[in-house]
Amino acid sequence: MIVWHFFRIFLHLTAGLLTCAVIFPFSSDARRDELVRRWSVKLLAICTVDVTFKDKSGGAVNASAMIVSNHVSWLDIFVINTLHPCHFVAKSDIRNWPLLGWLCEKAGTIFLVRGRQRDVRRIYEGLVHQIEAGKRIAFFPEGTTAAQGNLLAFHANLFEAAIEAHVPVQPFVVRYLDAQGQFHAAADFIGDMTFAESMRIILLAPRMTAELVRLPAIPTEGAHRRDVAKLARESIVKELGI
């Protein structure tokens, strides 16, 4: 059974590669977003991950808002994409993943080399231009994944892009639950675990539910990036109950 699941994922990745190579160059931004959304929905279905959405934002969602979220797993990107297809900022390691790394790049993922201040500056300037061009940007302020029930410190640098582009920050919370409503251990993607190992654990585990929660947006007009990062983290901590 596990071999069949891996084969289905391989076929789905291949279909995604062909879509990026053949269809994306001739598609509008809206069409690309829809293709990314549908592809993400199917990937999660193959991985036996159901997605539920809760809106606690309390108002209209700004289409240009910069999305931030806690970071549990490589699944997070695709869970968020089922609702809001985004251009993600992700660590450069992902680019080296077989097939999926190339696919993420073609879908608009922006890769950040950790520890390189010049790289952060280059990406920050690019984010401002993309937001101003109407792109939806998302990143994980922790900079890496953390086991469920934990939230690492937030890095504030990239929040500056939302301030300069005059858009709010839209926090999200993602959690992975089992049939009893408890944290699903198979979702954790931490330490030296590889993508293949994580995929195997998920495929062998009982079905899980990814719960995506949209929280109230944080205005950035006249704010400092550290203050915005602090407010975003506090709102996510409150929702996680930690």
TrEMBL record:
GO biological process: phosphatidic acid biosynthetic process
Keyword line: Acyltransferase, Lipid biosynthesis, Lipid metabolism, Transferase
Source organism superkingdom: Bacteria
A Pfam family reported for this protein in Swiss-Prot or TrEMBL: Acyltransferase
Annotated Phospholipid/glycerol acyltransferase domain residues: 65-177
Family matches, as SMART domains: PlsC (SM00563)
Lipid biosynthesis listed as a keyword: yes
Name of the protein in its database record: 1-acyl-sn-glycerol-3-phosphate acyltransferase
